[in-house]
Amino acid sequence: MRRGGVWWPHREVELPTEVPAIDVLIPVLNEEESLPLVLDAIPRTWVRRVVVVDNGSEDRSAERARERGAEVVVEPQRGYGAACLRGLRYLAEDPPDVVVFLDGDFSDFPSELPRVVEPILKGEAELVIGSRTLGAQEQGALLVQAVVGNKLACVLMELMYGYRFSDLGPFRAITWQALQGLKMRDEDFGWTVEMQIKAARRGIGAVEVPVSYRKRVGVSKITGTLKGTALASYKILYTLFAQYALEVSDPGRRGGADG
User: Where does this protein have coiled-coil stretches (predicted)?
Assistant: First the structure.
């Protein structure tokens, strides 16, 4: 089981004879234009079900999701993490083997899902991060503030925990068993970095795979404004240092993730 590093996927990832239960979780907020594109691009032969968490949309995102066969749950409390946590509570009623997290803005390529889950299916990892910085990017897709923030967070994670990541990208896969052990709590912008920090603290096998990235449909709720960028940056750094302070104050909890 790997602890960091890059998994270079095979050119063609073949559908295994026995496919584990793979569920896709998509948090959305006013994504009626992009969501149909995302749902249509998911390779359905690979997944058991697709769950869309409507995080208080004022448009027809939920309607668009149902039209394309997705299951819809509602989380009125705004926040990326809050939506993910609501989705996981829903999945817990019939847990999958693997959860794939995917944004609803069509910036990622859902067709690349097989390469994201491949290391898990081959027993090489429990957590796979789709790295946008290692993959092909449309020019201008990753804004400068996002690039700088990701780089800083990843450098700090390596210094603090010894795990080398290149991105905090939302397109990721994790085994249900490993995810339960992380005891995720963040309800906002710190969700992705919390997952990676707790995986490092627990010594969970984690790798990155290169994924493609393009300009999203619509304006980002996070990096699309200076206020959103500032809040996200603060939350990510706060999560990093809070988790590190917890570990330093109680070294015996390094193997745990209940903070």
Answer: none
Is 194 in contact with 243 (CB distance < 8 Å)? yes
Distances from the Cα of 109 to the Cα of 38, 102, 135, 237, 257, angstroms: 8, 9, 11, 28, 31
CB of 157 within 8 A of CB of 200? yes
Check residues 12 and 173 and name the one with the higher pLDDT: 173
**Residue 189 pLDDT:** 85
How far, in Å, are 19, 22, 87, 97 from residue 122 at the CA level? 12, 14, 26, 14
Alpha carbon distance 179, 189 (integer Å): 18
Q: What tokens does 191 get? A: 């969700």
Q: How do residues 67-99 score in pLDDT, each as one tens digit?
A: 999 999 999 999 999 999 999 999 999 999 999
3-251 has which fold? Spore Coat Polysaccharide Biosynthesis Protein SpsA; Chain A (3.90.550)
Domain positions in the chain are 3-251
pTM above 0.85, yes or no: yes
